[in-house]
Amino acid sequence: MSERDPGGWRPPQGAIRNRRLDRTVREASLGYLLVLPAVFVFGVFVFYPLIKTAYLGFFSSPPAPNLPAHYVGLSQYGHVLGSSELRDDLWRSVQFVLLTVPAGIAIGIALAVLANQRLAGIRIFRTIYSSTIATSTAVASVIFLTLLNPQVGLLNYWLGRKGGAGLLQSSAWALPSVSVVTIWQNIGFTFILMSAALQSVPDELLEAARTDGASAWYRFGHVTMPLLSPMIFFAGIVGVIGGFQAFGQIDILTQGGPDNHTLVLIYDVYQQAFQYDNFGYAAVLSVSLFAILLVLTFVQFWYFQRRVFYAN
Amino acid sequence: MPTERSRLTARLVVRRVSRYLLLISVAAVVLFPIYITVVDALLPSQKIGSRPPTLFPLHPVWSSFSLAFNEAHLGTYLRNSFIVTVAITAAELVTSVLAGYAFAFLRFPFRSVLFVVCLATLMVPMEATIIPNYRTVEALGWYNTFPALIVPFVGSGIGVFLFRQAFRGVPKDLRDAATLDGYGHLRFLARVVLPLNRPVIAAFSIYAFLAAWNQYLWPLIVTQTDNVRTVQIGLRQLSSTNFNQLDVVFAGTILAALPIFVLLLAFQKQLVRGLTAGAVKG
Amino acid sequence: MSGDSTPVTDQVASTFSPERLASSVGLEGVSKYYDDVPAVKELTLDAGAGEFLVLLGPSGCGKTTVLRLVSGLEDPSAGAIRIGDQVVNDVDPKDRDVAMVFQSYALYPHLSVARNIEFPLRSRQVPATERRHLVEEVAKSLRLEQLLGRKPAQLSGGQRQRVALARAIVRRPRAFLMDEPLSNLDAQLRVEMRAELVELHARLGITILYVTHDQVEAMTMGDRVAILDQGELQQVDTPAVVYDRPANSFVAGFIGNPPMNIIRGTLGSVNDTLSVRLPGGSLPLPPPLASVARSLGLDQLVVGIRPEDVNVVGTESVGSARPPVEHGRGTLEAVVSLVELVGHEQHVACRLRSGELVWVRTTNDSMPRRTGEHVLLQTNENIHLFDPATSARIDV
Question: For position A311, what pLDDT does the model report?
C-alpha cells in the first residue's frame, strides 16, 4: 500500500509480459489462422488448377489412357487456337449469347413494366413472374425436353410438328430452342432485377415528363430507359458471362447435337476432357474460354467499381 | 351528363379489364411449363401423349410421385443434395466469416495481398479449373464421394468480400469497448459482430444455398452412382432412363424443384435484396 | 475480480463507500509516435488516487491519445504508464482494471441496457446472481431501473450516457477514463450531467481522467486541469491557479470566456514608469514585475490581460484631451469592432491601433457601445507578462 495506491493494486497473475511484441505476434497469428481455411481451399482448388490447366495444354493426350502424355509445348496451343473447330465452337457460343441475352432482358423489362402498375392483386403477378427463379437448369431442361419431345411433346404438337423431327432434332432450330429454354429459366431473375431498377425510377421525374406533355412511349424511351440502363448493363454482362458458361441445358437437351449444332465451347471442353479423354486439347479450349470470361469479368468489375465510386 | 359519365366509366372498366387480361395471359405463358408439368405428373402415363392434350387432370393419379421418390431414387437424390448443399453453405459461411473478421479487425503482414487473392477467385470460372480439380479429387480417392462434392467449395470469394465489408461497418469504438470489457477477438466476433450482422448472414446463406443446390457440371463429372448423386444430375438421369414413364419424370421434376420453391417463398425479401445489392445500389 | 475474496455484499458496499479503493494513474516520460508524427511528446503527468484530473486542449493536442495509452488500447513509443505503483506497459487492457467512457458511448446496439451494463462482468466469470445484483445496484444509482429492458436505440442521449457510465462503474475499476463524454449532449443536458458527474466522483471517490476541449467543463469539474498542446504538457494545476497564473501565453489564450487578450508591445519608460508601449497607448508595469522585466533585458514583450480586467471608456466622457495616466492604469486607444450581448453582460471586441483585437467584458448597466465608436481602454494592474521567445510566464 502506498499513497499513490491505497488499495495496493496488482494486475492479475501472468498479466505482465512483453506486450508489444507479444501482442503483434498474437494478432498476426490469429489473423493467419482465420484466413487460412479460405485461402488454402482457394490455393488448392482455384489457383493451382488454373495454372495446371494452362500447363496441361502443353501436352497432347495419348490415344490410350495408360500411356503418358506427350509434351508438345506451345504447338498444341497454336494448332487449336487457329483451328476451325475452336472458331465454330466460339461462334456457336456467341450465337447462343446473342439469342439469349437481349431477348431475355427485353422480356424482363416488359414484364417489369407490366407488373409495375398499381392494380389490386399485382403482388400475385409479381410472384408469378419471379417464380422461374426457383427452377434450376436441370429442372427447366427436363421440362422442355419432354415438351419438345417429337412423339409426346405438347409444344411440338402445337407447333404442328407431330411425329417426325422435333425442334431439338432440327439443325436449324436446336440452338434457338435451347436458347428459349434458357430465356424461360431466367425470366424470374431478370424480372426481379429489372423490377428493382424500375421501382427506383423516381415518380417525380415521370410526372414532370407527363406534365410536360410527353406520351407514355416517349416517357418510357427518354426517362425510364436511360435510368434503367445501369441495370440493363449489369444484367447484360451477367447474362453474357452466364451464356458462355451455359452447360446443363445443352447436356440434357441436345448433348451438343444434332450434328454439333449446339456444340458450344464449354460443351466441347466437357466432351473432349471427359468423354474422349483428350485432356490436352480440352485444356487449351478451357484456357480460351477462360480468357474470354476474364475479359468480360473485368468489364463487370470495372463497371461495378465505377458505380460504387459514384455512389460514394 | 349521365351518358357521358357512363361512357367514361365504361372506358375505364374496359381499360382495367384489358390490363388484367394482359397480366393474366402473360402469367399463363410464364407458368405454362410448370403448370403442364404438374398436370402431367398427375396423369396416368398413357394419357400424357394423348391428342388432343389433356390440360386438366380429372382423376389425379398420385402414384407417380411415390414412384419417382422411391423407385426412381429421387428421394435419395434429394437427400444427397441436402447433405451437400447444407455442408457447402455452412462451410462457406464459416470460412468467409472468419476470413472477413481477420481482414476487418486484425493486422498481419500481407493482409492486402491475401485479400486480393480471395477476390481474385471471383475472376476464375469453373471451366478453367475443372480438369485438374477432377484429377486432384481422383488422386485423393474422393471420386464419387461426398467430399468431392463439398471440399472444393469450402471457400467463397464473394463471401469473404461481403463479410469484410459488413464487419468494417462495425464502429471501432465497439471493439475498443469490448477489449476493455475483457473480450478477445473470437468472443467479440461471436457476441457482438455476428448478432449485429444477421441480415448479411441470412442473405449470403440463401445465395450460397441456391448456388450450391443448382450446381451441375461439377457433380456431373465427379459422381457416378446413385448414393452420392445430387438431384440435378439425378434429374438428368431420370429423364434419360425413364423415358417411357413420363409421368414419373414429371413427378420427379416437381419433387426436385419443390424444396427451392418453398425456400424462396419463405425468404423472398432477402433474396431480392441479395440479388439487387450488387446492381442497383452499387 | 480474480484474487479478490471479499463477499458479495462487501463488494457492493465498497462500490459506493467513500474510501473506494482507487489507484493513482501516471505517465512518466511517455511519447507516442504514429509513423513519424508525434502525438504525445515526453509527457509526465500524475493523477492522484481519487483525483478528478481534466485533460484540456484543442483538437489534435494528444489528450485522447493519453487516454488510450493509459487504457492500453495503444502502446507508448517510449516511457512508462503506471497504475498505482505498478508499471503497466506490458499489461493487457482488460487486466489494467480501468474503465473507459467513450465519446460515442460505444453501447452494444443489439443488447438491452441491462445486458450492456452486465457485459464486462460476463467475461470475468462473475456468477449470474452476483451479476444481476451488481447491475441492479448500479442502475439504481444512475436512475436507470426503468430502462433496463430497452435497447440503446430507444434511449435519449442523456440516458445512453448514463448507461455508458453504468457499464464503466459496474466493474468497480481503479480508474475511470472519460473521452469527451458530454460533447454529444445538448447544452442544457450538458450542464445537468456535469453536476451529476461531479457528484458521482464525490460519492465514489474514484480516480477520473477526463478529456475535454471545453474549458468551462474543465474549470468547473476538475480537481486539477492539465492543458496540452500538440502533445506537450503546458501546465497542470488547480483551476484557480491556471486561471490566475497561466504558465504560458497558450494557456492564457485558451482559458477564459472570452479568453485572455494577448498583445505585443515594447518595454519602455512612460512618465518615469516602466511600461509596455503599443501604438495608441501604454500599460504601466507594477514595480515587482517591472524590475524582473528590466533585469531580463527584454525589448519586446507579450502581454496578457483578461477581458474583465479592462474597462471601456468613451472618448466623449473625457473630452478631447487624453486623460492623465493613473498609477497602475494602462490606457489604449481603440475602435469598437463588435458587440456581443451575452445575458447579463456584454463582450466588446475593440481593435487597437496596432491592429490587434482586445475583448472586454462589461456589465449591462455601463454605457452601451456601438460599432465604429472610438473608445479608450483602461486596464488595472492585473497584467500578465510572457517571454516573446519562449511564451513562458514571466514571474516575480
Answer: 45
pLDDT tens digit string along B169-219?
A: 999 999 999 999 989 999 999 999 999 999 899 989 988 999 999 999 999
CATH number, residue C307: 2.40.50.140
CA distances from C65 to A207, C40, C41, C61, C232 (A): 55, 7, 11, 9, 12
Interface membership of B186 toward C (CB under 8 Å) = no
CATH number of the domain at A91, please.
Answer: 1.10.3720.10
| Domain around A43 | 20-49
**B14-36: average pLDDT:** 89
Which has the higher per-residue pLDDT, C15 or C75? C75
When comparing pLDDT for A61 and C67, which is higher? C67
Q: In degrees rounded to 5, what are phi and psi of residue C337?
A: -105, -35
Residue C91 at interface with chain A, using a CB cutoff of 8 Å: yes
| Structure confidence at residue C395 as a pLDDT band (50, 70, 90) | confident
Q: What is the pLDDT of residues A289-310, one digit of tens each?
A: 999 998 988 888 787 777 655 5
- CB neighbours (10 Å) of residue A13? 9
Print the SS3 string covering C210-265.
Answer: EEECCHHHHHHHCCEEEEEECCEEEEEECHHHHHHCCCEHHHHHHCCCCCCEEEEE
Based on the fold, state whether residues C93 and C231 are members of the same structural domain.
yes
Q: Which other chains touch chain B, taking contact as 3+ CB pairs less than 8 Å apart?
A: A, C
Q: Is B111 on the interface with C (CB under 8 A)?
A: no
C282 and C386 part of one domain: yes
Q: How far is C97 from chain B (nearest CA, A)?
A: 9
Say whether pLDDT at C340 is over 60.
yes
Give me the mean pLDDT over the B2-9 stretch: 76
Per the CB < 8 A criterion, the answer to whether A234 and B278 are in contact is: yes
- Higher-confidence residue of B223 and A7: namely B223
Alpha helices in chain A (DSSP H): 19-42, 48-56, 75-81, 84-114, 122-130, 137-147, 154-158, 174-199, 203-211, 216-219, 225-244, 248-253, 265-270, 279-311
3-state SS track over A74-110: CHHHHHHHCCHHHHHHHHHHHHHHHHHHHHHHHHHHH
Of the candidates B66, B152, B167, the one whose C-alpha atom is nearest the C-alpha of residue B115 is B167
User: By the CB < 8 Å criterion, does C3 face chain A?
Assistant: yes
Identify the CA nearest to B193 among candidates B227, B163, B170: B170
Bond into C286 cis (ω within 30)? no
What is the three-class DSSP state of C5?
Answer: coil
**What is the value of ipTM here, to two decimals?**
0.85
pLDDT (0 to 100) of residue A312 = 39
Residues C42 and C148 grouped into a single domain: yes
Count structural domains, chain A.
2
Nearest CB among A3, A4, A19 relative to C90 is that of A19
C34 part of contact set with chain B, CB < 8 Å: no
Instruction: List the single residue in B174, B183, B195 with the smallest CB-CB distance to C123.
Output: B183
CA nearest to A126, candidates A114, A117, A115: A115
Domain count, chain C: 2
* Within a domain: C70: yes
Helix (H) or strand (E) run with residue C12 in it: helix C8-15
Of C21, C84, C89, nearest to A4 by CB-CB distance is C84
Q: With CA atoms as reference, report the closest residue to C310 among C262, C354, C273.
A: C262
Predicted TM-score (pTM) of the model is 0.83
Name the β-bridge partners of C29. none
Query: Is A259 part of any domain?
Result: yes
Residue of C nearest to B172 (CA): C106
* Host domain of residue C333: 254-394
- Verify that C308 and C371 share a domain, yes or no: yes
pLDDT 10s digits, C7-56: 433 444 444 443 447 888 999 999 999 888 889 999 999 999 899 999 99
Q: Determine contact, residues C222/C52, Cβ cutoff 8 Å.
A: yes
Q: Are residues C264 and C168 in the same domain?
A: no
